[in-house]
Amino acid sequence: MLHRYSGAERYFLLALRQLQRVYKSRSRSGSTGSSALCQTWEPLLNNLGHVSRKLGKFEDALGFHRQALVLRPHSASTFSSIGYVHALRGDLAEAVDMFHKALGIRRDDAFSTTMLKSVVEQMIGEEAPFAGDEEDIPQLSLPSSMSTPGLLQASMNDSTASGAGTGMFSASSVANQSSDIEMSDVTID
Predict the structure, then answer these.
(1) Do 151 and 58 share a domain, yes or no?
(2) Residue 106: phi, psi to the nearest 5?
(3) Which residues share a beta bridge with 119?
(4) Any idea what DSSP says for residue 39?
């Protein structure tokens, strides 16, 4: 199968070289035509990009797609193609950016929508919520007596030991707000 892509690449490159020769000869002869490739040849560059991608030549693919983007800057399919190459290379943030640009031009682009969803899911699966900051995440540890029954028992002991409800919790406050925890009872490592 790769030999078919190699053959396609050879023919596309041949066509591109011939176009470049024609445009160079026009510019040397003083013709009023532009020496740069016109918008009409954008599909040739994109096809070269697709073939290069299929052959695993990701840098070449990006180069051809970027040249196509110069010829037709508002091409959703070209942005999508660039995003796909970035996704294959593992440049997920770049891929997301390119798929967003493609969808900004053509909202109903099914390929870009599907690929964007896939890349974002892959990013979520690869990256920890606090990537690189695991040491800075405070650990919350509660004493074992912090359960609601433990709180009730502690407040009863405090109120009976020190008189009528003068401890940290009064019996009535524990009964009404038994799930409240004082911050002094929580330690942060």
Answers:
(1) no
(2) -135, 95
(3) none
(4) G
Residue 61 in domain: yes
Query: By residue range, what is the domain housing residue 58?
Result: 2-126
In a domain, 68, yes or no: yes
Residue 12 sits in the same domain as residue 97? yes
Q: How confident is the model at residue 57, as a pLDDT? A: 95
The answer to whether 176 and 169 are in contact (CB under 8 A) is no
Q: How far apart are CA 48 and CA 178, in angstroms?
A: 70
In whole angstroms, give the CA distance from residue 158 to residue 164.
Answer: 9
Give the tens place of pLDDT for each residue, 85-104: 999 999 999 999 999 999 99
Give bridge partners of residue 115 from the DSSP assignment: none
Report which of 114, 54, 58 is spatially closest to residue 86, judged by C-alpha positions: 58
pLDDT tens profile 131-174: 666 666 666 676 665 555 555 555 455 544 544 444 444 444 44
Q: What pTM was computed for the model?
A: 0.60
Same domain, 158 and 109: no
- Taking a C-beta distance cutoff of 8 angstroms, is the pair 24, 12 a contact? no
Q: What is the mean pLDDT of residues 54-68?
A: 95
How many domains is the chain built from? 2
Higher-confidence position of 105 and 133: 105
- Give the residue carrying structure tokens 């508002």: 74
Site of tokens 């066509």: 15
For 89-144, the three-class secondary structure string (H helix, E strand, C coil) is HCCHHHHHHHHHHHHHHCCCCHHHHHHHHHHHHHHHHHCCCCCCCHHHCCCEECCH
